[in-house]
Amino acid sequence: MKLYYAPGACSQSPHIVAREAGIELQLEKVDLKAKRTESGRDYLEINPKGYVPALELDDGQVLTEGPAIVQYLADLRPEAQLAPAHGTLERVRLQEMLGYVNSELHKTYTPLFKPATPAEVREERKAYLRQRYELVERRLAERPYLSGERFGVADAYLFVVTNWAGAVGLDLGGFDALAAFQRRVAERPAVQAALRAEGLAKAA
Asked: Which residue ranges form the domains of the chain, and what is each CATH number?
């Protein structure tokens, strides 16, 4: 399988999940502005949506959307216990949290990366993010990971998205449980390996 990614983008979430599950992926970097892959392919022919991630399966099919891809990868290696079994309430709860990170956090960051976004919109989006992080903070104050004691796919997604705060000037001061979570996840060997592979951390 091949993962089309951009360093530090939301594609880092399935990258981490694959490493946590022990799944080997080919990595191909995408220039999101030019819509070209590092091998020179037109990325829009691979994923007409134009953004990452995209996961090319061995039979040539392509999966898109991070929350779908991380669940697919987790289900390939159920012994890694990165997602609850299908048909359980716990799986629905996972999808609930993936949806929250996707719609309430991830998409709220988007305008903050655009230079043309007016200052008043930036401040409104930052305030909205801090409000939405309050729920996450309360949850992480009670447990090390979103679903309890074990790291899972939603944790990978939350970690990647929250890493964007510094780049957009979002002050997350006072979110102590969230800060501890970010440090805890960053120390995981699979996460370190993904960061190194994307050129975002120095090799040991």
From this structure: 2-80+190-197 (3.40.30.10), 89-188 (1.20.1050.10)
